[in-house]
Amino acid sequence: MRLRKTRKIIGEMDCCSNQKMDSSIDSCASAKKMSNGKCKNSKALASDALLLPVGLTNRVFFFLFFAATYFLLSRWRGKISTSTTIHGLSFEELVAIFIQLASFIYLVGFFGIDYIQNFISGNNDDDNVREEEKLKSPVAKKEVAVKPSPPKALLKGIALGDNENDHIAAAVCNGTVASHSLESTLGDCKRSASVRRRALEMMTGKSLDGLPLEGFDYGSILGQCCELPVGYVQIPVGVAGPLLLDGLEYMVPMATTEGCLVASTNRGCKAIHMSGGATSVLLKDGMTRAPVVRFATAKRAADLKYYVEDPDNYENLSVIFNRTSRFARLQGIQCGIAGRNLYMRFSCFTGDAMGMNMVSKGVQNVLDFLQNEFPDMDVISVSSNFCADKKPTAVNWIEGRGKSVVCEAVITKEIVSKVLKTTVPALLELNMLKNLTGSALAGAMGGFNAHASNIVSAVFIATGQDPAQNVESSHCITMMEASNGGEDLHVSVTMPCIEVGTVGGGTQLASQAACLNLLGVKGANAQSPGANARRLARIVAGAVLAGELSLMSALAAGQLVKSHMKYNRSSKDIKAIS
To answer: Is 351 left (phi over 0), alpha (psi -120 to 50) or beta?
Structure first.
């Protein structure tokens, strides 16, 4: 009996598919020699792999299992009667144990498989009939609705990208084309920067010829580093070193336009190296974010403060915070109240990232949870300046933010005289009067140093850090004390707020990544998350130590003005250039 093909179908099907369908129907029809005259399921069965029929195979293994068991019991009964140790097995007994185990495994896994297959086959008869019906009546192809793509931006009746750059720039000037949409409409980041640059020249009437455009990967900054680009600024990069720090040598990249800075830092590195190197200690590692919330009364604000400070509640908040990242780990919450407003300063470990986005995400998660616990809480802002980011503050100076590092070195009397061209007593007096007393008189906040921000800014720009965070990262107190009976100089810098990362932000740009690679801290540390960022913070502190040592020596020796007049003055004719 041959099944009739259904020729009338919904939709279109090719002849090759119909031929395959006929073959399947024919094979199913030829299988009707099986019981009940129905087409059985043609899928492969587990029993097909057996050499013998499944029923016979079951009987063989059943016999082997009981025969091996009887043999072993008989042998062991004899050993017990003759007081022979049972664990001493002969070759025949080992074979019997193997047969017993093999038979047991088979019987547990496959015994009764023939009956189970028959049972399943019986229950699936209806399914087979339905399968035949499916073969008779092929299903029509489904029509997938294609969402129309948005219309392309047009200018003068043609696609925007097909126009000349000057025409597109003119359209940007008159507002026909939005400047911020050039990357998405043109699909070419470099061309977008060129068009935007031309539009800027048209609008201002000023030339940008001195601002480079070529030689930069504008796609690398799209959506993450800079918006509305029109070029890039060139900043020279020098290297100071080798800086011998914690037994390792580093060539420190510094991006700066200030003459003498790299040379002076380099001299400090030389003095440190010749005196046996510097050592550093990392005291803290935690980025902060402090939201502010408001209640109807000060009492309710205090209730939340007590809630957050309760150890059990804190553990729960830690779990909620830590869910937001693989690396984020909440370290503590410091609360402050001003009237009915509560400020909560979250501190968090952020791995090799500087971590502002990471900690902000975790704080938002906690705030969402607290909103359910305290429905009358009004979230004013996720950042309240109690963090504090990019501002000189006492809370950062005292509590620290980012990486807190101390770096120290002992400079011998001979090196102070030979390399730094001054004396130990002169340096001790100058440090006390300038860095300590002078800064106190000025009301300095974390500024008890000679020029820490110079070195911090230069290293930050070279390695892709946020230059604005130089504000708190440059918090530093420089100490100079007599050592070894007053013969040598012990110099140290304590920097509680070095905010650096080796992943994210500007660190992924080619030039900045090359500088990080020079220091051996490029990217994330796979073995010890956070180790690269911590190492970079130590290097920053070591470079600051070198810079402080050299500048203070120049001031003590009266060489500052002379060196700056020599290295920080241009000999070019400015009038001719303009």
So the answer is: left
